[in-house]
Amino acid sequence: MPKKIMVVDDEESIVTLLQYNLEQAGYEVITAFDGEEALQLAVKENPDFIVLDLMLPKLDGLEVCKELRLQKMNVPILMLTAKDDEFDKVLGLELGADDYLTKPFSPREVVARIKAILRRTKSQDYQDSHNSEEEEVYRYGNLSIYTERYEAFLDKTLLELTPKEFELLVYLARHKGKVLTRDQLLSAVWNYDFAGDTRIVDVHISHLRDKIEQDTRKPAYIKTIRGLGYKMEEPVT
To answer: Whole-prediction pTM value?
Structure first.
């Protein structure tokens, strides 16, 4: 079955352009033109990916993104913004978007971004087809990470992670004890160059700490190495 992509933008020309290119790439496409319609359609259709414009009628893209995350919908979200405004980009990431593109953009770039994120997000069919004995499992302190099931637990509580947060956590776990620069994390987890825009890494690290650390001011799992990057450690008991 083709992946289902929802495109949300109030400019009909952009929606038509993206729909054509995504369908040519083999995706099923559904469309919405305002924030309220986007929320209703997301719940009804359960898309595999959402391309979401920031400036929308009725509800803007930030509100849509926030509401989807509150409803525990962890679908990947690529946010589009006409503003070359760092605040908007960072706020979108803090509310749960996985990635962003600034208008004007190339439709090929949108398709490439979607493919890069979906390629790293295991489908449920793929997960179910693998024996659990083949699964990579990481256990550090009270944290357990199951790579094939795309699940992580703190004690026995399932963590509500976005796909990108989970991928970042797995990469840190695989390299436990090694200092990883922000540029290394951008390349490995996002799979393309953000031209030095490492703020996206800091935002996602902050999200992870909120979910796995008892005290985010004194993190036990994900340590900041000043002037270098981040390192995953076994918590001291």
So the answer is: 0.65
Q: DSSP letter at 170?
A: H
pLDDT tens profile 104-124? 889 998 998 898 788 766 543
Compute the distance between CA of residue 77 and CA of residue 128 in angstroms, rounded to an integer.
Answer: 24
3-state secondary structure of 27: coil
CA distances from 222 to 34, 125, 144 (A): 38, 31, 14
Residue range 124-232, CATH number: 1.10.10.10
Q: Name residue 3's amino acid.
A: K
**Tens digits of per-residue pLDDT, 119-145?**
766 543 344 444 444 568 999 999 999
For the record, the structure tokens of 21 come out as 């290119």
For domain 4-119, the CATH superfamily is Response regulator (3.40.50.2300)
Domain boundaries, the chain: 4-119, 124-232
* Helix segments in 71-146, DSSP class H: 86-94, 107-119, 124-128
Provide the residue type at 59 as one letter.
L
Spatial neighbors of 37 by CB under 8 A, at least 6 apart, are: 8, 58
> Token pair 């706020």 is at which residue?
91
Q: How far apart are CA 48 and CA 100, in angstroms?
A: 17
- Interacting residues of 227 by C-beta distance below 8 A, sequence separation 6+: none
